[in-house]
Amino acid sequence: MAAAWNVAEHAGAPLSPALRGAATALRDRAETARDVRTALAGPRATARLMAWLPLVGVAMAYLIGVDVVGALVGGPLGWGVAAAGGSLTVAGRLWTARLVRDASRTGPVAGAEHELVAIALAGGMSPTRARQLVAAVRMRIGSAGGEHDGRSIDRVLRIAERAGAPAVELLSAEARQQRRLARAEGRTRAELLAVRLLLPLGLCVLPAFVLLGVVPVILAMMSSTFTGLT
User: Fold this and answer.
1) SS3 180
2) 0.85 cut: is pTM over it?
3) Angstrom distance (rounded) from CA 130 to CA 138
4) Residue 103 burial by Cβ neighbours in a 10 Å radius (0-12, 13-18, 19+)
């Protein structure tokens, strides 16, 4: 909003359309974030369940009468199993948290750079001067645009120049397209998360479950058997 206000003020563009475009971009970004949160609800629940699986194994061992702590601290083998199981549990939690964090990340407002250049052009500036103004404003407020946005704007401006089409309308249309792509990308990340969670599940969580919930039972049975034989 601050960038749109500044660009409109310096370019002499009407403020109402500028703020309306900024509000539309922010509204689309909020809708995208809601869509991503909804799509991530299932994978997040799966991740939380996976994180508790090793502790569930320990509880199950206690329920059948196995002293898990005694079995794990009763010798070097038990200590090794405990260390490996604990390490895998922590690694699984960290790995899962990172996957969820990456899937739910939100970047800058999609299409914001296009909207700002369109505002400057609507004020009567040349494309070159408009680009310079937008870059200066965004640098001043600490919101630099991405390299991909710059290439996309250059492409739209070239098309407008060759076709003789209004650049403002083309930039606004490209901004809407960028927001649609951002929403689709967020949904794709959410869907891929359910598949990527299988990696920490198979490589960390399930082995930790076996080490902390199954191996202590075997160690306890072996200890009781040897004690009975002696």
Assistant:
1) helix
2) no
3) 12
4) buried
Between the alpha carbon of residue 23 and those of residues 28, 166, 175, the distances in Å are 9, 22, 13
Would you tell me the crossing angle of helices 167-196 and 112-122 to the nearest 10 degrees? 170
Q: Are 100 and 192 in contact (CB under 8 A)?
A: no
C-alpha–C-alpha distance, residues 83 and 164, integer Å: 69
Q: What is the CA radius of gyration of the chain?
A: 28
C-alpha dihedral (11, 15, 140, 166), degrees to nearest 10: -50
Q: Are the CB atoms for 111 and 176 separated by under 8 Å?
A: yes
Over 80: is that where the pLDDT of 71 sits?
A: no
Q: Would you state the pLDDT for residue 229? A: 36
Q: How far apart are CA 203 and CA 106, in angstroms?
A: 28
Instruction: Give percent of the chain above pLDDT 70.
Output: 87
Residue 107 CA to residue 1 CA, distance in Å, equals: 16
For residue 102, give the 3-state DSSP assignment.
Answer: helix
Output 111 or 91, whichever has higher pLDDT. Answer: 91
CA triplet 158, 164, 165: central angle to 5 degrees? 85
Contact by Cβ (8 Å): 105, 127:
no
The pLDDT tens digits of the residues spanning 45-68 come to 777 777 777 777 777 777 777 666
Residue appearing with tokens 């490209």: 174
